[in-house]
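Technical note accompanying the year-one report. For the benefit of new consortium partners, we illustrate the data format agreed upon in the data management plan: each record pairs a sequence with a structure-token string. No post-processing was applied to the example shown here.
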Amino acid sequence: MIAAGGILGALARFGLAVHLPTAGGGFPWATLSTNVTGSLLLGLLMARGHPVSAAAYLLGTVALCLLASAAGLRLGRLGRA
């Protein structure tokens, strides 16, 4: 199931990127919209059978993504220094 979701997400991201190309230095709206839609679908699937797991997954994902963003900012600043 996870692999199927990954394949569908990759195909959707590619398809949107082809139809909504990002100009050099522009914001990748196609990727963002694909990721948000995939997250919505994943949340719906999880919440239908396991609300506690869905809540834990949501909180864990948000926390880890914020940590990854902070790490990326730090690493990016180190590279410019």
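Partners are asked to follow this layout when depositing records. The two ends are 43 Å apart (CA to CA).
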